[in-house]
Specification:
Keywords: Cell membrane, Membrane, Transmembrane, Transmembrane helix, Transport. It is found in: Cell membrane. It comes from Metapseudomonas resinovorans. There is one protein chain. With 415 residues, this protein is mostly helical. It has one domain: Up-down Bundle (Growth Hormone, Chain: A). It has 16 helices and no strands. Helix 1 packs antiparallel against helix 5, helix 2 packs antiparallel against helix 10 and helix 10 packs parallel to helix 14.
Length: 415
């Protein structure tokens, strides 16, 4: 039951005990994940100096979301999601321990880095839709689900703001293996929260995994508004999200910096993302999200071009903040729309198709950006991504109003 005391509208989902427990555990886990992500990027570029390998590693860590994610959603809809998520947290912890041990013993190299990134990607293909689809079970009222999704994203982006600068400081005093070990410990936070949550077993879909998958795919394919939202997620992450692969190149080669410079750049994007989730947490009307998503896609294209052209760190930090705000509003806003419109029995599959599109094309975009940067340089590669995103926005603009009307009608109809 939700807490009877009044809660501010921006954090209203925290009135639910189960969501508070999840929120606390996920806060610890997400901070650890950012420590590992920054340390791994720095390790790769320190050992090899290769922008292409940065792209390949990102590709390997995210591609399983595209290949495994859709079927993972169908599989998890047939099982108890909370028990599965606890098990996945344990496996993620073991992956981080193995990465720390290999790095500390100087056994790590390009092949093992890519292999460990691919293993992490497979585990995340189950972890992400599990966490996202369970949020509706942690809040007893559907009116609080959009706020729960926004607060969940705020956790990620708060850690994104704090984690990269912290990782840069830790790397200055310790090494990459220490960051990986801290990440392994952080998974205990979410597992502990899930163990003390009181909730009934989640409903399970009937039928084979193939049948369950086809049912979810038919739902998404049968709704033009959802198809267009998925296409927008694809384009935004293929273009704008590719900046993450190139940041070590900018930090070291453009700004002549070190791991702390990389941490500041990532932290600026995290600050923008945090502000983006705070913006979403205070929004209630679903049709208005369509307009903000469109505006932020335009801002994302402009942010990419500004960062590509800048050689001043202060201006680049501002461009990163704009880019973080824009990508978060596009991705999280779309997630809120999809989960608010999807029937409960299909939510795991809809979420998995969304996450596989988001992270899968993030992987492809990162790979393309890394390879392109090897040939034309990181600034030109980022500028190309900005031009492509603005071109898509020009195509999408006349369809925006129709999409808003469709979503308004869908949100008012019973599901």
């Amino acid at each position: 039951m939700p807490d009877a005391r009044p809660w501010p509208a921006a954090i209203r989902a925290l009135r639910h005990r189960n969501f508070r427990l999840y929120f606390a555990g996920q806060a610890v886990s997400t901070l650890g994940s950012w420590l590992q992500q920054v340390a791994l990027a720095w390790l790769i570029y320190r050992l090899t100096g290769s922008a292409a390998l940065l792209g390949i590693t990102t590709f390997a860590s995210l591609l399983p979301q595209l290949l495994v994610g859709p079927l993972a959603g169908a599989w998890i809809d047939r099982h108890d999601k909370r028990r599965l998520l606890i098990g996945v947290q344990g496996l993620l912890g073991l992956q981080a321990i193995a990465l720390a041990a290999l790095t500390a013993s100087d056994l790590i190299g390009p092949t093992l880095i890519v292999a460990m990134a691919a293993l992490l990607g497979v585990l995340n293909a189950f972890d992400t839709p599990l966490r996202q689809s369970l949020l509706s079970q942690f809040v007893s009222g559907k009116e609080d689900l959009p706020n729960a999704l926004a607060l969940n994203a705020m956790l990620f982006n708060s850690s994104r703001f704090v984690g990269p600068p912290l990782a840069g400081l830790l790397l200055g005093f310790t090494n990459e293996a220490a960051c990986f070990a801290l990440n392994a410990l952080s998974y205990l936070g979410l597992a502990a929260g899930l163990l003390v949550i009181r909730m009934a077993p989640t409903p399970r879909a009937a039928g084979s995994t193939g049948d369950v998958f086809r049912e979810g795919l038919a739902y998404v394919a049968g709704k033009p508004s959802i198809r267009l939202m998925m296409l927008s997620v694809l384009v935004v992450n293929l273009t704008a999200s590719s900046y993450a692969v190139l940041l070590p190149v900018f930090a070291k080669d453009i700004f002549n910096g070190d791991a702390r410079t990389l941490g500041w750049l990532w932290g600026a994007a995290g600050l923008g993302s945090l502000l983006g989730t705070l913006f979403l947490a205070n929004r209630h009307a679903l049709p208005s999200l369509v307009r903000s998503i469109m505006a932020c896609a335009l801002a994302g294209g402009a942010g990419l071009l500004a960062f590509a052209a800048s050689q001043q760190l202060a201006l680049s930090l501002l461009a990163m903040a704009v880019l973080g705000f824009a990508i978060t509003n596009c991705n999280v806003g779309t997630n809120i729309l999809l989960q608010s419109l999807a029937p409960e029995r299909l939510r795991g599959r809809v979420v998995s198709l969304y996450t596989s599109t988001r992270f899968g094309f993030d992987a492809i975009g990162g790979l393309l950006a890394g390879v392109l940067a090897e040939h034309v340089g990181a600034p030109a590669a980022m500028a190309c991504a900005g031009v492509l995103l603005l071109g898509y926005c020009a195509w999408l603009l006349p369809r925006q109003r129709l999409l808003g009307r469709d979503i308004a009608a869908s949100s008012e109809s019973p599901r």
